[in-house]
Amino acid sequence: MSTTSAPATTTAFHGLPVIPPSENLTSTAPRKIAQSFLAIEQSEGAGARVRRSVGTPKLRNFSPFLMLDHFTVVPGAGFPDHPHRGQETITYLLEGAIDHEDFTGNAGTIQAGDLQFMTAGRGIVHAEMPKQDKDGKASIGMQLWVDLPKALKSCEPRYRDLRAKEIPQVTADGAKVQVKIISGQSYGTDSVKELAYTPVWFLDFTVKPGGTVKQPLPKGWNAFAYTLAGNIIVSSNRISRPIPQYHNVVFEKEGDSVEISVEESAESEARFILVAGLPLDQPIVQYGPFVVTSREEVMQAMRDYQTHSNGFERAYNWESEIGKTME
């Protein structure tokens, strides 16, 4: 998780386009479900609780996705100083506020509805902590780890805040469907550009009883949906399957769209995120926060971090201020 600051946004964008050029997006062939499973809550970091669905034995190496955590952190808990190399993180805050600080001098806060896109590149050390509010309320959000193309793994670190007010919103299906277009395209509306280096679509849907989402996706991209609230129905080829809260739905690659609805008789609306990404044709070798393409590169990353070199120079004697709230 992370937030951004003014200096970070000056770094040049080296990523691939989030919307494939000249691709005709349709919703005529909904994808089938490859698998669906409950994200079980577990401990993570220092006192945090997470429901991890990507990056578990049920779903590993689902390129370009490395990990998805639905996290809950309270003041006094969090993610104190830690390194990253070779990947990006997308943090979407649903409730509360999260402070961020890194060894380049960047610091900031994201609030409910905000996101941060962090490209770790050759190396970053940072801390992510819930804002120390007196009311003690939890901060809740989603954090997605995305692999970087091998050619970009040695790039300079980059941050990009995306504030709630910047995110386009569209209403469809007689006002029964609302979508926040965080990254990508939905119902003819494009997101803000130049977010993640690896192309990722990230859509936040709220669907009222009787509503149906018909969402095109780029062909060949891996895709999944995660249910934040309520129950949804995924349909393909005249087969419909109910999916309850806190489940990850992994879609097959074949097909050009997904079709998701909420029963007319449902007691409440449903909310889910739909995520799709460009698969990367490269090995994934991960050791904790280091994501590279070979065992030798893992060993090099560990040496670089321990010796404060090759991207980790500024880690020498660095400590975040916000991480001290754990003491």
UniProtKB/TrEMBL annotation:
Domain called Pirin N-terminal: residue spans: 48-146
Task: Show the InterPro entries listed in the entry.
Answer: Pirin, Pirin_C_dom, Pirin_N_dom, RmlC-like_jellyroll, RmlC_Cupin_sf
On whether NAD is a keyword of this UniProt record, the answer is no
Species whose genome carries this gene: Pleomassaria siparia CBS 279.74
Highest taxon in the source lineage? Eukaryota
Q: Which UniProt keywords apply?
A: Iron, Metal-binding
Q: Which residues form a coiled coil?
A: none
Compositionally skewed regions (Low complexity) per UniProt: 1-12
What does the similarity note say? Belongs to the pirin family.
Every Pirin C-terminal domain range: 203-310
Q: What Gene Ontology molecular-function terms does this entry list?
A: metal ion binding
Lineage of the organism: Eukaryota, Fungi, Dikarya, Ascomycota, Pezizomycotina
Is Iron included in the keywords of this UniProt record?
Answer: yes
Cofactor(s) it depends on = Fe cation
Locate the transmembrane regions by residue number.
none
- Write out the residues that bind Fe cation: H82, H84, H126, E128
Q: How is the cofactor bound?
A: Binds 1 Fe cation per subunit.
The molecule here is called RmlC-like cupin
**Positions of region (Disordered):** 1-26
